[in-house]
Design goal:
It is built from five helices and no strands. The protein is mostly helical. Helix 2 crosses helix 4.
Length: 101
């Protein structure tokens, strides 16, 4: 049995803010980790590529609200900072936003 990657340890250097905010980022990072693990069998964030996080944000989260996707985008930003990557992610616009609503 292999031990799961410790997301709290990975993010401990970049987390700031209130305890509730830190816990939200950890919870969301673990959710991202589980989704990528299920789709690509990559449990360790050091092995992730930009396409994995882009898939998560644009397809796995596509049925979630704009605000939920925004909070996950913030968590993904923390992950990329911690991993030392310069990846940029853009949220796909919802149909309502494209029509000016």
């Amino acid at each position: 049995m292999t031990k799961s990657f410790d997301m709290a340890l990975l993010l401990s250097g970049v987390l700031s803010g209130s305890q509730a905010t830190q816990q939200r980022h950890l919870r969301q990072a673990r959710f991202i980790q589980a989704a990528i693990q299920q789709r690509w069998q990559r449990d360790n964030p050091w092995t992730w590529q930009q396409k994995h996080l882009a898939w998560f944000l644009n397809y796995h989260m596509s049925q979630r609200s704009e605000s939920t996707r925004y909070y996950y985008l913030l968590t993904i930003h923390l992950l990329t900072v911690r991993l030392g990557k310069s990846w940029q992610f853009k949220r796909k616009l919802t149909q309502g936003m494209m029509n000016g609503r």
